[in-house]
Write a structure and sequence with these properties.
Elements: E1 6-11, H1 18-28, E2 36-41, H2 44-56, E3 60-66, H3 72-85, E4 91-96, H4 98-102, H5 104-109, E5 114-116, H6 121-129, E6 140-143, E7 149-151, E8 176-177, E9 179-180, H7 191-195, E10 200-201, H8 204-216, E11 221-222, E12 224-225, H9 241-255, E13 260-261, H10 277-286, E14 291-297, H11 301-306, H12 313-325, E15 329-336, H13 343-359, E16 362-367, H14 386-397, E17 401-402, H15 405-421
Helix pairs in contact: 1-6, 2-3, 8-9, 9-10, 13-14
Bound molecules: cobalamin and iron/sulfur cluster (SF4).
Iron/sulfur cluster binds near residues 186, 192 and 444.
Length: about 450
């Protein structure tokens, strides 16, 4: 067991795993002189035990955390718990992912030693090469000995084909990321700000390599991570159906007769204006899903404009009708409580929800959350009045509506309080648009 320079402990939670799997996929192919080992801390207690063991072996211990904003506060409490059990100068807690990227200083103040910002592949490989010493590694934010914030800059954004989309060595599989970044810029969403406002697609050949490996391992279901499914292969806001067909055909063939391909269902939602008969027929031809998810977000064109969605309500109606006509079950994402939404807008959303439910769609209701890393980070938390809640409940009882929108109300309030505690330079809550503002799926998470 001895002779290791570095023990990498993942605080591995079932809720958020994909980012870690992608990082492990990059690590398994990386040649380094550092002698390291990776261990999975599936609970606070097991993470603490791995840290203790690493220290006992005389290794430096790099503890990696990956989480989204709503979990940040609870995990900060867990970090303190772990530190109370196992800690030492050789232990470095690094938080990465969407929250750490958007709020690095909040992350440090919450107790982590280092915040990793942006895409993590090269950052992690550099950290492993340096046996866990963060000094000078690009993509990090930390405090120096005097307590001043050090920012080492954003890591390079590399082509998706450069790294594996899951980990063979550690046997960790997930929906395959086929597209990173997004040309739309919906004000409630972090994706284009995290990964850039351009699409980067994994090539069909590279996707096929992954599908072949999955089949060899006896895995049967192929799913995709993408901000907007029908944008695969496109550089613009228009779909590229030829590229989509090439992708689906090669996955269908690769996974074999007993396998299944899912496209247009979570986590690969479809924008409403991209829904066409031709696109739906491609899904039916190659895929196993009988449902698709379409992002509507609001039944008010005014709110959609303010959110810079890049489509209107009519496109949503058309998408649902087409989907139903082609025999799909349609799930429609809607957000209640968006900034500037007034009673008339809420009524318009409820009317649309009822109309789509009549057509046979199911509404996936969300409460607006002012998410870090989005243009609406400083907006007031989404609130939903009792009357709307009653109507939404009626739709839920009919099975026409689902979602964690009540829980999201609590998240929203906490995020708004955190945003107020960390005002962005030059910004204040008063500059929020109460309505129109004119940039462009569903809340992808
Ligand atoms: C898949 C997904 C989910 C899945 C996750 C499944 C899983 N087992 O991992 C599920 C359904 C659980 C989910 C849930 C939610 N999600 Co979600 N989800 C996504 C989605 C579509 C893809 C995320 C992903 O895996 N991307 C691919 C991986 C490779 O990217 P990544 O995780 O960011 O990791 C990279 C970097 O961040 C970094 N990195 C990540 N971790 C670490 C750690 C270290 C140490 C380092 C160095 C680097 C690093 O390196 C990775 C490779 O470059 C994104 C939108 C998008 N297109 O990105 C939303 C997104 C992440 N979700 C979001 C949200 C808000 C939620 C929910 C709160 C929504 C809700 N229903 O209430 C919940 C919260 C769940 C929770 N407990 O935290 C937001 C997060 C914004 C924020 N600031 O928090 C996003 C960005 C969408 C949006 N609206 O903007 N989600
Ligand atoms: S909501 Fe979807 S389309 Fe809009 S910016 Fe986010 S990922 Fe892109």
């Amino acid at each position: 067991m001895g002779g290791r320079d570095l023990v990498v402990v993942l605080r591995y939670r079932k809720a958020v795993t994909y980012g870690f799997h992608v990082l492990l996929g990059a690590l398994e192919e990386h040649e380094t002189t550092t002698r390291y080992d990776v261990r999975f801390g599936e609970s606070a207690e097991s993470a603490a035990r791995h840290i203790e063991a690493g220290l006992a072996e005389g290794a430096r211990v790099l503890v990696l955390w990956s989480f989204y904003s709503p979990d940040a506060a609870a995990l900060a409490a867990e970090l303190a718990e772990i530190r109370a059990i196992a800690d030492g100068p050789g232990v470095l807690h690094v938080a990465g992912g969407v929250h750490a990227t958007a709020e690095p200083v909040q992350t440090l103040d919450a107790g982590w030693d280092v915040a990793a910002v942006g895409e993590g592949e090269t950052t992690l490989l550099d950290l492993v090469d340096a046996a866990g010493d963060p000094a000078g590694i690009t993509g990090l934010v930390y405090r120096d000995a005097a307590g001043a914030i050090v920012r080492t800059g954003r890591p390079q954004r590399r082509p998706l084909d450069d790294f594996r989309g899951f980990s063979l060595r550690w046997d960790r599989f997930n929906a395959l990321e086929i597209t990173r970044g997004c040309v739309f810029s919906c004000r409630f969403c972090q994706t284009p700000f995290m990964f850039s406002a351009k699409f980067r697609h994994r090539s069909a050949g590279n996707v096929r390599w992954h599908v072949d490996r999955m089949r060899e391992r006896g895995l049967r279901d192929v799913r995709f991570i993408t901000p907007t499914a029908l944008s695969y292969g496109s550089r613009t806001d228009e779909p590229n159906l030829a590229a989509v067909e090439e992708l689906l055909a090669c996955c269908r063939e690769g996974i074999g007769p007993n396998g299944r391909v899912f496209f247009g269902s979570f986590p690969s939602e479809i924008r409403p204006e991209h829904v066409s008969r031709e696109a739906l027929r491609l899904v039916r031809k190659y895929c196993a899903n009988t449902n698709i998810i379409v992002g509507a977000q609001s039944g008010s064109d005014r709110v959609l404009d303010a959110a810079k969605r890049g489509h209107g309500v009519e496109e949503v109606r058309r998408a649902v009708r087409l989907g139903v006509a082609e025999g799909f079950r349609i799930n429609v994402d809607m957000i209640f409580g968006m900034p500037g939404e007034d009673r008339g807008d809420v009524d318009a959303s409820l009317t649309l929800a009822r109309e789509l439910a009549e057509l046979g769609a199911r509404i996936h209701a969300h409460t607006f959350m002012p998410l870090p890393g989005t243009p609406w980070r400083d907006a007031p938390p989404g609130d939903v009045d009792p009357e709307t809640i009653r109507e939404v409940d009626r739709l839920s009882r009919r099975g026409a509506l689902y979602g964690h929108w009540q829980k999201q109300r609590d998240h929203a309030a906490r995020l708004a309080a955190a945003a107020q505690a960390y005002p962005r330079p030059g910004r204040s809550r008063t500059i929020l648009p109460t309505v129109p503002a004119a940039d462009g799926c569903a809340p992808p998470g």
